[in-house]
Amino acid sequence: MNGLPLLLRKKAKSDGQRKKELSEIEIEKKVARMSRRNRMKRQVKNSDLWQSLNQLASFSQNLSPVSIEERGEAPADRQIFYRLKRWLMSFLVKGFGGGRMFCYKHSKSVMRIFYFRHSWWPVALVFMILMLGGQELALGQSLLSPQFGFEYYGGTNKLRILNPWAGLRFSLGEKASFIVRYHYSDLRYQYYGGDGQGGTILKDKKAEISRISGTVYFSEKNLTGYFSGSYLSGSESYRGYILDSGLEWRFVQPASLIFSVYSIRERSVLWHPEEYVRWINTYSARCGVKLWLVKNLSFNPNIYFMRNSEKVKGVSYSVGLIYSPAWWMAVTVYYFRYGETAFYIFHGNYLSTGLNFYF
Fold it and tell me: What ranges make up the beta strands (E) of the chain?
């Protein structure tokens, strides 16, 4: 019995020594990590990438609103565009809020750059790339300009579509341009489907859609036009192809006529749930008028004639307002009335809003 306390003391002593050794090992690991991190920072700052970033930063300084205004290269309403450029460039090079910014890993002679202070850095990086692709950035002989925006659609059967998008415009000369866009759509609505017992029940449909499009725009005096092709993919192996073209003729100063044709070939899984899967072709023609009510505000009524490969016809119309307080921004609000000659769950009323930027 007298030996038991001695054994306990020895065990406690050995536990204490083990903890001390572990703490010393942890301290050594921390010191090694800090020295390795500092070494990586120095290597990154001495690298060609860091020098390139500094050159981009000096480039953004040259895009200051004051210097541009003094050179007479941009109107006053473009100043916010250049301020955004400078802020995003400063964020990338100096780091938001200072502190740690870059580290890198070598893997098969490939340098990977990570920003590990803020989790939302990819969003800022994307917008930085878009902003740096502004009207002064030349790629060869074609100018590159960013475009992006957000649109919302909602209405009958609790349909809701959230549609952010981004794109780049390549100038093809004074009268033409080519635009590449990516649209992401989060879609949901309600419909009546089978309950498995011979009856019907209200269900929720959710889907995600990606759309990549290429569009050629042209203008000639009072006439503008476009031709566009798109590829769509989404949930449940959804696929689709779109061809779209249109003309706008400004026959008098306060008014213009609009005509366009639209066709889509898509799998039925998105809009015809619980039906057998098939390809459906839909064709539409649009006729409209754009009337300028006051400066920067126009009124746009339209009528649409539709027909699909299943011999279903329809006539719809829309009325909307387009407000452009600056050359690079457009705010849109539209009311749609959608109708078909056959029963269809989307027959009804819809509202669309959008905030889009075109640099």
Answer: 102-107, 110-115, 138-139, 142-155, 159-171, 176-194, 200-220, 223-234, 238-252, 255-267, 279-294, 297-308, 313-326, 329-338, 348-358
Hey, which residues does 216 pair with through a beta bridge? Answer: 178, 227
Q: Are residues 66 and 192 in the same domain?
A: no
The domain spanning residue 154 has which CATH number?
2.40.128.130
Inter-residue contact 161 to 185 (CB < 8 Å): yes
State how far the Cα of 166 lies from the Cα of 164, in Å rounded to an integer: 7
Enclosing domain of residue 42: 23-115
Residues 92 and 172 in one domain: no
DSSP 303-345: EEEEEETTS-EEEEEEEEEEEEEETTEEEEEEEEEE--SS--T
- Based on the structure, what is the number of domains in the chain? 2
92 and 181: one domain? no
Q: What is the pTM of this model?
A: 0.63
111 and 185: one domain? no
126 domain residue, yes or no: no
Phi, psi values for residue 333, rounded to 5°: -140, 125
Q: What 3-state DSSP class applies to 13?
A: helix
Are 345 and 274 contained in the same domain? yes
Q: Is residue 98 part of a domain?
A: yes
pLDDT digits over 3-31, tens only? 544 444 544 555 556 656 666 777 777 77
Q: Is 262 left (phi over 0), alpha (psi -120 to 50) or beta?
A: beta
* Strand 279-294 with 159-171, pairing: unpaired
Q: Kindly report which listed range (26-30, 100-104, 154-158) carries the lowest average pLDDT score.
A: 100-104
Look at residues 187, 184, 190 and name the one whose alpha carbon lies nearest to residue 167: 184
239 and 174 co-located in one domain: yes
pLDDT, tens digit, for every residue of 241-256? 999 999 999 999 899 9
Q: Are 177 and 217 in contact (CB under 8 A)?
A: yes
